[in-house]
């Protein structure tokens, strides 16, 4: 069965492997060039963020990470959609559509074993592909994580490209496509339905990670650069008074325009903030610390895989049930 599965699906496997290899080479070249650039140009440790050496280095690193970063930004949507549509949807739909399942299921291989070999074998390959993507993007990002330029894995730009989430997205899309093929029994409708559901799932979860846990709060009682720790995921910022009443920045500005002026320029910002604190206002920052990265990874993986596997189980059960 493994040989038959390879013969039937080798084009998807080879094409996906080739695309991952090309991406891996591009990431490797970029990482090596960035490591060399950082070794020659990184400013001294502890330089202030807005001083010329730090600013110049940060701008240069942004320019280096942007081209591949923009390309990678599309992968959390496109890669699972393509896996679901071209790996999962045709898996059973094509057999039903062409009637070849009648021949396959009358051979010595049982229907259950035939399904298990295809689903488990290809599902494992899909999960390994997602982990391979994560394994390539992680070291590439590490090459850019040179102070004062920070790369946070919990940041939503990179969150779905590292860890186990790529594998969870790929595997859930594959199972979804397989289920759609088993239920609809037509290849093109199954592919279209898979693409639609993948898009809905992506945009539905696009900004969901900050809601996976209650954020931590840091109350700013004096002027400081950033009350949230480095590598944290920012959620929200607002002001409170002595009674704990919440205010927006605009409301505080309106209330303090007379005694404190405005914070419209960088020169007056610290003076304005100091005056605001003296009038009893406190700025609150809500954030998720970097150590919640794996908690959020497993949470999103469960959100994706539990319904996908449940739907896949229904589809497999329907496929195994003889049709009268």
Describe, in plain words, how this protein is organized in 3D.
With 324 residues, the protein is of the alpha+beta class. The chain folds into two domains: 2-206 and 313-320; 216-288, no CATH class. The chain has nine helices and four strands, in the order ααααααβββααβα. The chain has helices at 2-41, 52-98, 100-104, 111-144, 165-184, 187-205, 249-260, 266-278, 293-320, and strands spanning 216-220, 233-240, 246-247, 282-288. The protein has a four-stranded antiparallel β-sheet with strand order 1-4-2-3. Strand 2 (233-240) and strand 3 form a beta hairpin. Helix 5 runs parallel beside helix 9 (293-320) and helix 7 packs across helix 8. The protein is elongated, with a radius of gyration of 26 Å. The two termini are 27 Å apart.
Task: List descriptors.
2 domains; 67% helix; 9 helices; alpha+beta; 324 residues; four-stranded antiparallel sheet; single chain; elongated
Describe how the helices and strands are arranged:
Elements: H1 2-41, H2 52-98, H3 100-104, H4 111-144, H5 165-184, H6 187-205, E1 216-220, E2 233-240, E3 246-247, H7 249-260, H8 266-278, E4 282-288, H9 293-320
Antiparallel strand pairs: 1-4, 2-3, 2-4
Helix pairs in contact: 1-2, 1-4, 2-4, 2-5, 2-6, 4-5, 5-6, 5-9, 7-8
